[in-house]
Every structure is written in structure tokens, then in C-alpha cells.
Amino acid sequence: MFLHTVFLLSLLLSTSHAAVQDFCVADLKSADGPAGFPCKPAAKVTSDDFLFAGLTETANVTNIINAAVTPAFVGQFPGLNGLGLSAARLDLGPAGVIPLHTHPGANELLLVTQGHILAGFISSSNVVYQKLLTKGELFVFPQGLLHFQIAAYKRKATAFPFFSSANPGLQILDFALFASNFSTPLITQTTFLDPDLVKKLKGVLGGSG
């Protein structure tokens, strides 16, 4: 028993000084990769790297969708690097809408803090799941699925999405189709939309082709 205790103590002492990397603050001057950003040298890490105050202010929603998303991803918040989470602020004006979009790199958990938001997603079997959310309620969007948020009752709303990745990615379906150089004939062929409608939407969103 004595020898067993001595062995355990020696093992604990030998491992107690082992190097543990508690965090990897992103070096944003370097290129991002599949494993994230390289780590900033520890000597250059400060408390400011673990604080992000960019979600405290209401964003300007004077735009075509009457809404704005303020991200707190690793590119804005270096302390998130490698931690597998991030956040954002969603401001919706009256009847504001975040069009159908996906986050290919993360699940999303939406917390409503003001107003009412109609939120939903489309499953891979083409089933729509949607709920009218109010202050304090949460809704989850599984990774990669098309989803949306709309301010209800013609009133402004605010919500905070949280993601299971420091860099969840974003692709908005309407912008991918009509704000890009995806040619009108190909859009017509792949979506069955009328060519004149495609050209009209391209004119609104600034696409070409």
C-alpha cells in the first residue's frame, strides 16, 4: 500500500508541470486554415483578446432586407480561435427578414431578446419546422440546413445567435443566385424560375450574367 501511494504521488508530481495550452488566440495577420488561425505568441496575448464589445449597439437596418447581422466570429473576436463557438447580433426592423441561408460549419442556437421573430428551417426531407418566438425563447437550426428569421407584427426585434464553431460560415440563397455572376440561363434551368424574374432580381441585388 505504501509503495502504491508513493507511486501515485510521484506520478502526480511528474505530470503537474506538464505544459497545457489553455487557449490559442488567433493571429489574424496569418491565413486562416481548416484548423483555424495560428496562435498569437503567448507574450502578446492580453485580456482584450478575450473581450468583444461589438454586439452592444443596435445595427443600421436601412437596407433591402430591413435587417442586419453583426458577427462575433473569430475574425472579429480572436479569443474564440479553436474553442468551437461564436455569436452574433441580429437586428430586425419592422417586417425585417434574414432570407433563406445556411451555416455550413455550425449548428445555431437563436435567443430572442426583443420583439417577436418567426423562425424556421427546412429539413433535408423538405419538411418545414417553424415557430413564432418571443423574448427569452430559444430555437435551434441544425448545421447546413436552410433557415430564416422574420420580424413579426411589423415591429422591430432583436436576437442573438450562438454557433458551434468559431467560424460558422454563411451563404444567403438569394445573394448566391442573384448577387453573383451565376448566369441567367443557368439559374432558369436549375431553378425553373422565369428568365425575366431572374433578370429583375439580378437588377435589384446587383448580379450579372
UniProtKB/TrEMBL annotation:
Q: Which UniProt keywords apply?
A: Apoplast, Disulfide bond, Glycoprotein, Manganese, Metal-binding, Receptor, Secreted, Signal
Please report a single Pfam family linked to this protein: Cupin_1
Q: Which residues form the signal peptide?
A: 1-18
Where, by residue number, does the polypeptide cross the bilayer?
A: none
Q: Which GO terms describe its molecular function?
A: manganese ion binding
The protein's matches in SUPFAM superfamilies, at most eight in alphabetical order, are given as: RmlC-like cupins
- InterPro entries per the UniProt record, alphabetical: Cupin_1, Germin, Germin_Mn-BS, RmlC-like_jellyroll, RmlC_Cupin_sf
The lineage's top-level taxon is: Eukaryota
Q: What residue stretches are annotated with the Cupin type-1 domain?
A: 53-199
Cysteine pairs bridged by disulfides in the record: 24-39
Q: Where in the cell is it found?
A: Secreted, Extracellular space, Apoplast
Matching PROSITE patterns, A to Z?
A: GERMIN
Question: Binding positions for Mn(2+)?
Answer: 101, 103, 108, 147
| Keyword flag Signal | yes
SMART domains per the UniProt record, alphabetical: Cupin_1 (SM00835)
Family under the similarity heading:
Belongs to the germin family.
Protein name, per record:
Germin-like protein
Q: Tell me what organism the protein belongs to.
A: Vigna radiata var. radiata (Mung bean)
